[in-house]
Amino acid sequence: MMKNENTIKVLKIEPGKMPYEKEMVNELEGIQAEVEGMFECVYLDHNCIAVVNEEGKLNGMALNRRIGNDIIAGPFFICGDSDDGEFISLTDEQMDVFASEFKDAPVFTGDEPEAQPRMIVTSFNY
Questions:
Q1: Which of 33, 61, 88, 108 is the Cys-Cys partner for 56 at CB 3.0 to 4.6 Å?
Q2: Closest C-alpha among 16, 20, 24 to residue 106
Q3: Distance between CA atoms of 39 and 86, rounded to whole angstroms?
């Protein structure tokens, strides 16, 4: 079977589950399918990116994991970041680092301040 050149190896992280390795189609539809909606990128160490649902909290998706000072809602995946800013496969080493970092699926109450949707509004006086 011919391997699709447009697939990459990622670490998928779903609420309440252990992270797992997965091959996904590296196109808009494939990315949106993995995060169940519109996505945004959160830049991580080791030249990696967490690709998350940008409206996860607004849509009431299950709280998943902490990244930095935020809680991500809904499923997300971690991929590599090429020098050109493209999504690329994780190396085995990157896979191990993040599988270990996200192995514990915390239980959130939903009362955490970071769990609340927030929006930054900037106004300008003309």
A1: 61
A2: 16
A3: 15
pLDDT band, very low/low/confident/very high, at 2 (cuts 50, 70, 90)? very low
CA distance 96 to 19: 10
pTM score, whole prediction: 0.88
Query: Rounded to an integer, what distance in angstroms lies between the CA atom of residue 92 and that of residue 90?
Result: 6
From CA 42, how far away is CA 108, in angstroms rounded?
A: 21
Q: Name, in order, each residue with C-beta under 8 angstroms of 22's C-beta and a sequence gap of 6 or more.
A: 9, 10, 11, 12, 77
Structure tokens belonging to residue 82: 């090429």
Residue carrying the six token digits 């998706």: 61
CB 48 within 8 A of CB 91: no
Q: Write phi, then psi, for 95 (nearest 5 degrees).
A: -60, -45
